[in-house]
From TrEMBL:
Protein's UniProt name: L,D-transpeptidase
Segments of this protein annotated with the region Disordered: 83-106
The UniProt record lists the keyword Transferase: yes
Pfam families: YkuD
Gene Ontology CC terms, in alphabetical order: extracellular region
Entries under CDD domains matching the protein: YkuD_like
GO molecular function terms noted in the UniProt entry: peptidoglycan L,D-transpeptidase activity; transferase activity
Keyword annotations from UniProtKB, A to Z: Cell shape, Cell wall biogenesis/degradation, Peptidoglycan synthesis, Signal, Transferase
Amino acid sequence: MLHFRSLKLSALLAGMIFVSGSMSVIPATAAEAVEVAQADIGMFVDRRGRRVYYDRRTDRIVAIEEPDGRRALFPGDRQPAAALGEIDPDYFPPPPPPAEEIAPVPRRVERAPLQAPSEPGGRRFRSLEELLEDRGVATSPEPDPVPAPAPQAEPLPETRTAAIPRTDPLPKVDADIVAKLQVLLDRKGVSPGVIDGRMGSNVQKALDSYRTITGRVVDPANEIEIDAELELSGGDAFTDYTITPEDVAGPFIPSVPEDYAEKAKLEALSFTSPLELLAEKFHMDQDYLVKLNPGADFNQPGTTIRVAATGEELAGTVVRIEADKTREQVRAYDETGALIAAYPATIGSSATPSPSGTHTVERIAVNPNYTYNPKINFVQGDNRDILTIAPGPNGPVGSIWIALSKPTYGIHGTPEPSRIGKTNSNGCVRLTNWDAAELADMVSQGVTVEFLD
């Protein structure tokens, strides 16, 4: 049957008039035969079970095949029943009316809907869908494609750092207003590093932590708002201080040598001047202290100078510390999980990276000496021997050493407070001397220290 049907279609495509007991075709003139021969024939089954053949190019129906062997183009175009062999061999049914011209059904409109095709004179082209509906042929709409599920980003692992908000980029602000803000932050235990009247990353980190601790947002450019916050925390940002004999008594060293072998020759790594001592005492940058007190003699007892009113040292019990390498900040938490202090920090370098993971506090040393051993840590200059460097605020680890359970690593002070958060360290966690001293008073052996990469 399949072979017979393909023969009939081949005859149809050749433009021949083919008549059988099961198929009727549209009569074709010579011109029409050429047109049909070039056609792309499609087929569907209507609801009566008939096979309907049509030209895909013009959408013209070219033949209908009856399922029971009768032939018809449209209902009513049948030859009267007759006995077998009595059919007039010259009989052919009357030609059907001209097929209606149809337009293809649009598949899908991607942008603006298209207007129905038309020709001059107002003649309307009927769509294939309309024509098939009139003739009882069931059609099914093309299903909409199932949209692919939207890609889901993998959730980032939650860390406690997420609780620290980020402030907007800091504006340009007068140095005196910035210095007030730095004093406010220092009082609240969110250290800006040195008080120097400069807006920078250390101030921004401190503002973020201030918001976490207090729940308040401070506008760094609003002096009235800053003054109001200062009033709540102890009053004016600056106060007068009279230099004492102890401030200038020393001992002082002329300078701090870079070479560790030269450092090891000194009896102490003391301050180099009363100015340096006073600047560290009030958490200030030396140059800013001089700028704030033009013409002042810092070597003379009895001299009254203007200094930062940093207030009392923070008190509390720290049970956990985070050393955030990305933000270059150390954060301290109490037993409730609340943030109680935050300090800018220098944490390792690419050449001498800091540890990873979680460690614990082993011991605390105040004003420690320093053992240089190039075999187990870094090599400084041409020094290949083990050296012992005397204690002092200008020693390699400053005036505080908080040793960690990982050998040779710790949290410590610095001889250069103005460079905290702006340079590299030799693998340890470096704070200003005053921040390291404040933290040391709040920790004890066994406190966890988690390094965040």
